[in-house]
Amino acid sequence: xxxxxxxxxxxxxxxxxxxxxxxxxxxxxxxxxxxxxxxxxxxxxxxxxxxxxxxxxxxxxxxxxxxxxxxxxxxxxxxxxxxxxxxxxxxxxxxxxxxxxxxxxxxxxxxxxxxxxxxxxxxxxxxxxxxxxxxxxxxxxxxxxxxxxxxxxxxxxxxxxxxxxxxxxxxxxxxxxxxxxxxxxxxxxxxxxxxxxxxxxxxxxxxxxxxxxxxxxxxxxxxxxxxxxxxxxxxxxxxxxxxxxxxxxxxxxxxxxxxxxxxxxxx
Amino acid sequence: xxxxxxxxxxxxxxxxxxxxxxxxxxxxxxxxxxxxxxxxxxxxxxxxxxxxxxxxxxxxxxxxxxxxxxxxxxxxxxxxxxxxxxxxxxxxxxxxxxxxxxxxxxxxxxxxxxxxxxxxxxxxxxxxxxxxxxxxxxxxxxxxxxxxxxxxxxxxxxxxxxxxxxxxxxxxxxxxxxxxxxxxxxxxxxxxxxxxxxxxxxxxxxxxxxxxxxxxxxxxxxxxxxxxxxxxxxxxxxxxxxxxxxxxxxxxxxxxxxxxxxxxxxx
Amino acid sequence: xxxxxxxxxxxxxxxxxxxxxxxxxxxxxxxxxxxxxxxxxxxxxxxxxxxxxxxxxxxxxxxxxxxxxxxxxxxxxxxxxxxxxxxxxxxxxxxxxxxxxxxxxxxxxxxxxxxxxxxxxxxxxxxxxxxxxxxxxxxxxxxxxxxxxxxxxxxxxxxxxxxxxxxxxxxxxxxxxxxxxxxxxxxxxxxxxxxxxxxxxxxxxxxxxxxxxxxxxxxxxxxxxxxxxxxxxxxxxxxxxxxxxxxxxxxxxxxxxxxxxxxxxxx
Lengths: 267, 267, 267
Fold this sequence. Notes:
homotrimer, 7 helices, alpha+beta
């Protein structure tokens, strides 16, 4: 164990106008005064669990392995959904078991999963609408202080929730997926990963079709095409992205999450 | 006193596009290099002092008692309004005396209030438009370093400013208040607190009327009703809230701050 | 050198919805676990290098001199533009050499400039689209850990990039500049600095003309005029600003970046 406490990251869909995130920070720092908080994002799409799962997939590998990732995107708060704490080889997770780990579980298997059922760790009384503050924050703080995972809950009896993901379809003529996220710059992030595309495109030029418009080739970086021109590239998360150099592809193409994207060998 | 310096939180309506918040951080960290800054929100409604007061009420109780809360929502900057530093049992405050403590003062009385009138602590020259950077930040930093409150100013001669708040009206037939905030999810937060509502509703089912529409019962959590259905509940701040499960109540009801909300016994 | 590591600030145009900023934080904290990160802004205008340069000018002087400022507004990522690390008397910079230092270089000369050409410090493989994560973050982390500037790269052979800036024109009758930024409150920040204006206005009342509308005098603070009234003042960054007290000057005047602003002696 390191001398200083592990990092504790915060990821929510709470926005930053309201006091929800701050209340969680207060609870954590009251229970673990030495915690080193790191804000990841509080602007995730509201109540979109799959988007949060994708976010975690992209971020977790960059952090130290003992980091605790507290993630609360929790449309089912107060219902029967479980809270869990999970230890993976590359990081630790605290949050609702509602599919937030869907992408992470594709990459590695958990070492240990506990169901959060030990109310002695919780902030009382527990609100029915804000387990982020009353359950997940104090549990993460206790873990951060050095308590063991099996003190925080008991071994989970059921597997973690996995959400269905949009399919990738491969034929001899084409590889078809869809847009799964639109970033701040309007880049369209797809569910086609680099290894799929490279395999398909081996030795070929390829065209990428977005919606009904066929109009770009795969390049290496934005600056490979003139300003305002459409291109495809393998983005920094190893996914096929559709971009406009110094522009906004989502607006240009009127595309959004769910828009089909198809890769075909050039003419 | 703890070995590490107390936490120092930052709450403003400055937004995060401009450099104002960052300049305050720089000044604090230049004067108190070991300060442990915690961003609460910089997205409070511009120049809305009462909204900031409500925000502090919700956040302060979650933090350690020695935390310094630096809050700058300051439409009167450069005028005759005072700057103050205040010690409460549950936290410490630095900022303008313009009503930011309205809600906090309902909960507890200050132990000590000083008026910030000792320019030797300030960043010179003091801008007429940015006391957050030039007065409040260096004063908070000095307090954080361990200077005493009575070094930072002299005992305040006048009481702290209290802002008028919307009234709650109670009759035999109904309890009437209004929406005082709309959160990130579109939930309508009212000025009806749990103890009011519970007392009124003791032994009764109740209906909640928002604006002219009467259409929801009080439930325990969002998931108690189907997606898209309106409900009322006691939110995590112990206030009556109007919500749409997995929806946006403010848009659904065309309601906003000031919209009347009325609780009545069910038919 | 201080006992604790220097502060490391983060400034980007990445927004906070996506995982880009978080990935940079993860890389820095993996390479320099004791780094003390300070978020400045991630909401800078997308791909607007000059706006980011102005932001740095306003913020850097408030921070300790050994602070490392990591700034990534990088429309040319993956092209031939250099990455640099620069030591100034008042701070240290890591980022692309694309004009981000334009304003800073007006104030002081660098002590040392290196070109980032030592891949052993970088995260491999280096993405063509995200040098913030793969080049600048690990280099800043290494600098933060105490490595010397000349380990991180070799002495730069060419001068740092300077971007053209809008001109200030002075005649006997008028001083003319333009709006260079609109802040969160709608205040119009101009390229007319205090010393210019004071000199011009010495002993005179002056009028400020924005676009085609002539209608305000220079005052000392917002509260000097009634709510809703237009005024000019020397803002906290020592620039002439056009404001509406408790209002939004940009909307009121239909003004934006590039709108001409002219100062004339009062009739």
